[in-house]
Amino acid sequence: MNRADYDRYAQAFNNRDYDAVFDFYAPGASIRFFGVDLGTREAFRRFYGFLHAHVVETLTIERFAASEELIALEGIIRVEAIKDLDAATLAQQGLDQFMPIAKGQVQQMRQYIHYHLADGKFTSVGCAIVGLT
């Protein structure tokens, strides 16, 4: 996978095309971060469908490196609430680890993301957040 391939993945994510995004993952891929397991197409759609009903989330890539086995990037995740997402609603979804956000509020997070690859598909993904602004 090269930068152009990854850009197609990021564009599909920014466009909320969850099936196109999930197609970049190998069967049985480990998609776990922040206490959420998104290892099936249904779980992936359910999580992001819920989240994106409340927020507009976009990824801006600042640094990118790729090899046949790994993609590593640094970027900014921008989250803007289009409706309130309070602690009770998050808890109902089992997402207590996420921060509530009020309609109109913006959160920006520096995120480091590593994707392990096999045959040009993601086999696992790991994320770390450094801070909020």
Automatic annotation (TrEMBL):
Q: Which Pfam families match?
A: SnoaL_2
Extract the InterPro entries matched here. Answer: NTF2-like_dom_sf, SnoaL-like
Give the SnoaL-like domain ranges.
7-124
* Descriptive protein name: Nuclear transport factor 2 family protein
